[in-house]
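Protocol step 6 of 9: fold each sequence in the batch and record its structure tokens directly after the sequence line. For illustration, a two-sequence batch is reproduced in full.

Sequence one:
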Amino acid sequence: MPLLGLYAMNGGEGPNSYAQNSSYQRGVVDAAKPIIEEEIATKLDVGHVFSTHVKPFRIADFGCSTGHNSFPAMQIITESVQKKFRSETSQIPDFQVLFNDQVFNDFNTLFRSIPPQKNYHAAAVAGSFHERLLPKASLDFAYCSCALNWISEVPKAVRDDTSPAWNKGRVHYTGAVQEVFEAYSNRYANDIGSFLEARAEELVSGGLMTLLVPAAPCFEHSETFYTTQSELELIGSCLVDMAKKGLIGEEKVDTFNFPLYFTIPQELKAIIERSNSFSIERMEILNNPGKCTLRSADARATYLRATCEGLLKNHFGSEVMDELFDRYTKKIAASPLFLDPDNEKSIIILVILKRKAE
């Protein structure tokens, strides 16, 4: 199983690109806007910026993809910070935004798409956000939206055919034995811990961090609603069907698992609280921001293709992608469960964290 850094969201601006199929993620940004503005106005400490000499106010977006949903978020943040400075000082600093994603991310599309009227200097920082990326205490505001459901790698036990957690015939922990779920859960806890540790080094004391985390309301599954995990299970069934027809090797299916984990609010809060570097300023579930954005089978298929095709292509090859997503589209269309937005129970957890003073 390849590490997360060996693929990225679909680049460019074509019909299967992330740029054209991320309306759900844009809905998350819009839903979070008033909360981000309020928290910056009431919680951000701006005194350190002019404590010795004027320095840039640095913002980083961890997991920016090709930027189409990052740019609105950066506008919200920079304008809110400007308003905060105006209320407390006559000086406004320069802004620098650092766009981070995996090394295979399409940064060319991102920089071609940057709004011409932006009020910040832009730079790219390539690498995994599960590790340290920036100098110590160099960052004033950290942001991460719809990215912390990706773990750094599929748990080793899930890939080991001698382990009780070997996930033969499945591509995710959904519906798998308890050992598989526990392996994913432990990997997630370790990865979020590493993410928080890295950001604690990079953020100044009093710096803020906004996390918008794809999650599930609970770990139980019901036939009356679905979450993103259900869709991963559905694409897994398509892969099994293709293996039975000899279109792909059975071993290929047995050795593939999605490096995705969907936490629940209680679990995420417990992980954050184990970090001694941050205080939780606010934590809540957003009203479902994208409930009505993916009403058709085609829309749901292209959405998943935009986010996961790179991973699937890396393992199964590009020549079977059209067949795979055609089968997936037909299975979605055949299920009334997936086409009724009222059955969608995936959630977004919004978390505002503040770097404690050292």
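Sequence two, same batch, same settings:
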Amino acid sequence: MAYQKFGLDRHTPAGAWVEATLAESVAGIPYLLPYVRSWMRAVKRAERLGLYYGLELVPEPTNAHDENAIQIIGVVARKWPFMAPITERFHIGYVPALTAAELQTDIVSKGLRLGGELQSIYVEITGHIDVKFVALAPPGHSFNERQAKRA
């Protein structure tokens, strides 16, 4: 087997959402590798136990490298014996810069929220990690609708 694929349950945040982007790879994974690996272990555990896991997209306007930066936060529900469930959060990367700039202009600058949907996690035998996601937006801001406005 040349790769391992998991994280396929596609949990979507509560509420009405449309796909604001096509499937893309999370940027910056090599710089956040310890957090990404912890999140992947938590996702595998959540899949096994039937618990929620997914993504949150959080604008980061104070980012020193890119004022349009949007963090991708991996979230995973965790249950402990005799305790209330908790949600773990891991900063796993960023929305690619060109897409983040578009989302900033079309959605975030209008005061609207973004969501995220995990499509899959691939881990190659070489150790390379590819996390695919789709950015979500409120209805009326789908990828196709946003592209039509640009035409």
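Proceed to step 7 once all outputs are recorded. Observation for sequence two: The chain has one domain: 3-150.
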